[in-house]
């Protein structure tokens, strides 16, 4: 579904991604693990066109997307949940969800599907996003990515800063969108328990490179902790 081939991405003169390659297949949940500052968020931003690579190739369902403008990429069927949620604090929950709709079209049942995953959002539909709790804001950010019925969702540390009960809720929502809707998932996650519990495969990043690719069933938490030096 998604193929990243030998991409090189810079911030100014800073050489961040140094020949990254990876893939996400239909129906997979793939995690990217690594310490802070190794380029995980930059990789996701490169895929979404926010920090385009200077060279290399990114294909979604066989179509090259590395030269597309960022607003066009979600229209191909990729939802994006950025680190830090990035909701609009003065817009209501419903208005935040509407911002992700292509050309303002509301498909029948779009909101119902999001509220099925996150009933709490239905209760707060007319409440400004900035007044929600951290966990509710994360639900809203994920809901916004789902509103246009994506074929794939990219999430950047969705459980960051959440209490354990909310981590479990976010984890369950990711699994449900994958199992029930067949949505492929590319996940950057610092919570090893979550990554190991829900992923099919994982990539380990170090200093702008992929240094390890394994099926989750083939690697233990203890081995990951040693590699990550946590």
Please render the helix and strand layout as text:
Elements: E1 2-11, E2 14-24, E3 29-33, H1 40-47, E4 55-60, E5 63-64, E6 78-81, H2 93-98, H3 110-117, H4 119-123, H5 134-146, E7 152-156, H6 164-181, E8 184-188, H7 192-198, E9 201-206, E10 209-215, H8 221-228
Parallel strand pairs: 3-8, 3-9, 6-7, 7-8
Antiparallel strand pairs: 1-2, 1-4, 4-5, 9-10
Describe this structure in words.
The protein has one domain: 3-Layer(aba) Sandwich (Rossmann fold). 32% of the residues lie in helices and 27% in strands. The protein has helices at 40-47, 93-98, 110-117, 119-123, 134-146, 164-181, 192-198, 221-228; strands at residues 2-11, 14-24, 29-33, 55-60, 63-64, 78-81, 152-156, 184-188, 201-206, 209-215. The strands form 2 sheets. It has a 6-stranded mixed beta sheet with strand order 6-7-8-3-9-10, sandwiched between helices. Helix 6 links the parallel strand 7 (152-156) and strand 8 (184-188). The chain is globular, with a radius of gyration of 17 Å. 37% of the residues are buried.
């Amino acid at each position: 579904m998604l193929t990243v081939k030998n991409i090189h991405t810079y911030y100014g003169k800073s050489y961040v991604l140094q020949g990254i390659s990876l893939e996400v297949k239909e129906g997979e949940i793939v995690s990217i693990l690594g310490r802070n500052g190794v380029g995980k968020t930059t990789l996701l931003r490169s895929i979404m066109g926010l920090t385009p690579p200077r060279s290399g190739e990114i294909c979604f369902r066989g179509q090259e997307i590395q030269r597309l403008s960022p607003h066009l990429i979600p229209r191909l069927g990729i939802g994006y949940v950025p680190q830090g949620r990035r909701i609009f604090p003065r817009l209501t929950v419903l208005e935040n969800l509407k911002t992700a709709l292509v050309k303002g079209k509301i498909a029948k049942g779009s909101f119902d599907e999001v509220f099925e995953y996150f009933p709490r959002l239905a209760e707060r539909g007319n409440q400004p996003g900035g007044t929600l709790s951290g966990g509710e804001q994360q639900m809203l950010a994920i809901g916004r990515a789902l509103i246009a019925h994506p074929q794939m969702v990219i999430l950047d540390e969705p459980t960051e800063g959440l209490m354990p009960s909310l981590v479990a809720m976010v984890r369950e929502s990711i699994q449900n969108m994958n199992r029930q809707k067949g949505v492929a998932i590319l996940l950057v996650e610092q919570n090893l328990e979550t990554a190991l519990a829900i992923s099919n495969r994982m990539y380990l990043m170090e200093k702008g490179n992929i240094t390890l690719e394994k099926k989750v069933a083939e690697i233990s938490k203890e081995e990951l902790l040693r590699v990550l030096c946590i």
